[in-house]
Amino acid sequence: MKTEEKSNVPKVRIAVLGQMNVGKSALTVRYLTRRYIGEYRSNTDLLYKQTVTLESGLLDVEIIDVSVDDDDGFPIEQIQWADACVIVYSIVDRLSFEYATRSLGELRQLQNGPAVYLVANKADLDHLREIPETEGASLAASHGVGFCEVSVAENSPNLYKVFEKLLIESRARPVKPRKFSVSKMIGTLIGNNGTRQPLVNQGTVQVCNKGELQNKNRLLKRRQAFTTAASL
C-alpha cells in the first residue's frame, strides 16, 4: 500500500482485559490469525497491530492484551488509550467472573468510556462450569453491554463477531483524543511445542512494559514489522 493511502486508513484500538488464564491472549491471536496456541508469556502487556478489511474498507487495528497481576489496580491508562474493550472471564473460574464484574463497574464510571463487550470463554468445559450463562448475560445486561459465550479452543464463530461489532461501532464514533501512545519491543509467543510462533499476518506484536505508555519516540524507534512464514 502506498504511504499516502496508508495514512488515510482509520484506526481503532481495543483493550482485552481479564484475569490470568481466562484465555484472553488466545482469544486475541485466534481473531487475528485464525490459529490457536495455548501457552503464552503473560507477565506483561502485548500490543498487536494489523490492518483488517471490513465491508466499509480497510481499518488499522491495535489490540492491547492487558496483563493483570493480583496487586495491580484497574488498568486505567490502557482503557483510556482504547476505543473499545473486551472483558473476558472463564466459565470455570468464579474469581475471573468477579474481576469482570469489578471491571464493568469501573468502566461504568468513566465519561466517554470505550465500547464494551463481555465474553465468557472456555464454553467447551461445560462439565466444569461455575458461572451459568444466564448469570453472565444478566451482568452484561445490567451494564448495557454485549455478551456471548465462546470457546477459543474450538474456534467459536461468535468470537469474530465480537471484534467485528466493536470495530464497526468504534469506527462510527468520533475520533478519541490521545494523551499518549503505547511503546515497547517485539514480543514472543510460546506455542504448545515450546517454540516461537509468528503472530499476525503482515502485522506486529510488541511487549508493553508498564509505565511507558507516554513515550511516543521509543515507539517509533523500536517498531519492527514481521510477516507470517510462508508455510502458514
UniProtKB/TrEMBL annotation:
Transmembrane domains' residue ranges: none
Gene3D superfamilies: P-loop containing nucleotide triphosphate hydrolases
SUPFAM superfamilies: P-loop containing nucleoside triphosphate hydrolases
Reactions the enzyme catalyzes: GTP + H2O = GDP + phosphate + H(+)
Gene Ontology molecular function: any one: G protein activity
SMART domains: RAB (SM00175), RAS (SM00173), RHO (SM00174)
Enzyme Commission designation: 3.6.5.2
Family according to the record: Belongs to the small GTPase superfamily. Ras family.
UniProt name for this protein: small monomeric GTPase
Source organism per UniProt: Chironomus riparius
